[in-house]
């Protein structure tokens, strides 16, 4: 399976922070925001990843992440000149997808906790035994009226309905910015008609699978945190949350070098090379301690 991170957009809700730098490069506690969705895909075993961003921000991402080889992955880049809706990610990534299954995650969505739900969804999608070609994820929220809401059969995991910010929600499950589709996603995205706001809508792409009875849902298990960082308050809350976790445990969240090693993408020598390339910092000191623990085992 391939992965796409959509890290474009204007980020106007975070202005003036985003006047110079896109929101996906803003800090979430001690790391750029992009580290979190990237590490999430890596933890799911996805190593071939396309990052879609703006012409202005592309050089910054390339300077930060390179081609991904230091993490044992392959990072590709594509420019989105202007935001035309989430489905455009599949059109821009059609050549990259090359007939394979694909997972799309939004660059401002963070997940923390037991991600077995994600790994099992990937495994089920690869097996193709359930007739499901498109998968959305369901996250229980206190007030679903502020989100896209999914209603589904808990036994079959088939979607019954999807509504955008309904006044009377049919469930308390919101749809976060995480999707898994088969290789027809690009063709489906091309067939969509723009909404009144001039963009194609991800809901329409999702519903194209539902019309064919091929849309399933994966429940994000209790205890997993889903953090959206699109507003100043949510960005602050996400930073505070990650900071509290790291300070309490003494372990870093979304440390790409550590994730790469733990996933077996790089070996001890690769980890040493990563550390040697870092400047003296708290981040490097953490990885040096991690390496020492490994060597002492």
Automatic annotation (TrEMBL):
Its EC number is 2.7.7.24. Gene3D superfamilies: Spore Coat Polysaccharide Biosynthesis Protein SpsA, Chain A (3.90.550.10). Keywords: Magnesium, Metal-binding, Nucleotidyltransferase, Transferase. InterPro entries: G1P_thy_trans_s (IPR005907), NTP_transferase_dom (IPR005835), Nucleotide-diphossugar_trans (IPR029044). Residues 2-241 form the Nucleotidyl transferase domain. The keyword Glycosyltransferase does not apply. Its cofactor is Mg(2+). Belongs to the glucose-1-phosphate thymidylyltransferase family. This is Glucose-1-phosphate thymidylyltransferase. It comes from Bacteriovorax antarcticus.
């Amino acid at each position: 399976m391939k992965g796409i991170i959509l890290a474009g957009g204007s980020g106007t809700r975070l202005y003036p922070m985003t006047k110079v730098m896109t929101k996906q490069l803003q800090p979430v506690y001690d790391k750029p925001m992009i580290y979190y969705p990237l590490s999430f895909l890596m933890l799911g075993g996805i190593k071939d990843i396309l990052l879609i961003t703006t012409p202005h921000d592309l050089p910054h991402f390339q300077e930060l992440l390179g081609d991904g080889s230091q993490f044992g992955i392959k990072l590709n880049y594509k420019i989105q000149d202007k935001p035309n809706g989430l489905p455009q990610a599949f059109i821009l990534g059609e050549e990259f997808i090359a007939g394979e299954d694909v997972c799309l995650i939004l660059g401002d969505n963070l997940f923390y906790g037991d991600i077995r739900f994600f790994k099992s969804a990937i495994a089920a999608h690869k097996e193709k035994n359930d007739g499901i070609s498109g998968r959305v994820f369901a996250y229980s929220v206190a007030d679903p009226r502020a989100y896209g809401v999914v209603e589904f059969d808990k036994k079959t995991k088939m979607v019954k309905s999807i509504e955008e910010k309904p006044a009377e929600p049919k469930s308390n499950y919101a749809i976060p910015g995480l999707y898994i589709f088969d290789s027809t996603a690009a063709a489906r995205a091309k067939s969509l008609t723009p909404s009144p706001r001039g963009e194609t809508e991800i809901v329409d792409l999702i519903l194209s699978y539902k019309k064919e009875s091929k849309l399933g849902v994966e429940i994000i298990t209790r205890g997993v945190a889903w953090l959206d960082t699109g507003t100043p308050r949510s960005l602050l809350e996400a930073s505070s949350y990650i900071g509290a976790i790291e300070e309490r445990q003494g372990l870093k969240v979304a440390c790409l070098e550590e994730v790469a090693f733990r996933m077996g993408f790089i070996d001890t020598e690769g980890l040493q090379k990563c550390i040697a390339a870092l400047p003296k910092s708290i981040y490097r000191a953490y990885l040096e301690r991690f390496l020492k623990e490994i060597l002492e085992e």
